Amino acid sequence: MRVKGMLITEQHTAAKLVPQFKLTELSFENKYIQIFRALDSHQKRVILKLIRPKYDQVFDELDCRAIKHEYEIVRYIGESPHLIRFKSLIEHENSTIGIVEEDDESMPLLDTIPRQGFDVKEFLSIAIQIAQAVDHIHSHNVMHKDIKPSNIIYNYKTSTVKLIDFGSASRLKEELSSHATNINKLGGTLGYISPEQVGMTSTLFLMTLFAQSVSIITCLTHSLDWTYESTY
Ligand SMILES: Nc1ncnc2c1ncn2[C@@H]1O[C@H](COP(=O)(O)OP(=O)(O)O)[C@@H](O)[C@H]1O
Ligand SMILES: [Mg+2]
Fold first, then answer.
1. How far is the CA of 194 from the centre of ligand 2 (A)?
2. Of 48, 68, 91, 117, whose CB has the highest number of CB atoms within 10 Å?
3. 84 lines ligand 1 (CB under 6 A)
4. Comma-separated ranges of CATH 1.10.510.10 domains in the chain
């Protein structure tokens, strides 16, 4: 199989399990997933996020559950101009193996940042949109938990920013029960102690705001001074 000049010789791909789509480009791949640009049966552009099989057509059950979780949490949050829109799930033998996403011709933000960073006007527009996206998901008590430039896409023609990759996202309710923090054990007086001390709601949201801020700084400077590239 060949997509945009690239031959997919790799065995571990779900590409042959989606004959209803015409794959046009392999945009991204790692050990776990492949991202394809494709045309659906109505010749509409879509993006396919497909899990890679462990071998032949056998998928890891945890990977299948994770991708379904990602789909469900985005659908739960509901539509926003700054959130990726998921169209449907791709199933294979009763397991979820992928997501059909809208393709609005956005590119990963990191690939669009000019070497010297965005100019101030474009930077502010991007920063505000990232903040609006985060505000929207927080208003639904959901935390993204993996905000970084590679999980933000940008359409420079329309100057629109969207958050993608809700693979690590969770609802606050689930976070609080898994933290097992007992509020009665805290010293100090509520209302005065720091969010870090409370260790719950505020901190969880602050973590997202920190990641959001670092992503925004990266847009301005095109560098992340205190760590290395792999964390992008
Ligand atoms: N809708 C999209 N538009 C453009 N690029 C995308 C889109 N979805 C994913 N990508 C690209 O694929 C990469 C991996 O997708 P992502 O959903 O972040 O998967 P992972 O969970 O492996 O990080 C992204 O960093 C981005 O470069
Ligand atoms: Mg990602």
1. 31
2. 48
3. yes
4. 107-221
> Using a 6 Å cutoff on CB, does residue 28 contact ligand 1?
yes
116 Cα to the center of ligand 1, angstroms: 24
**CATH architecture for the domain at 2-102:** 2-Layer Sandwich (3.30)
Q: What CATH number matches the domain at 107-221, 1.10.287.110, 1.20.1540.10, 1.10.510.10, 3.20.20.70?
A: 1.10.510.10
Which residue has a Cα nearest atom 8 of ligand 1? 164
Q: What is the pTM of this model?
A: 0.83
CA of 159 to the centre of ligand 2 (A): 21
C-alpha 119: how far from its chain's center? 25
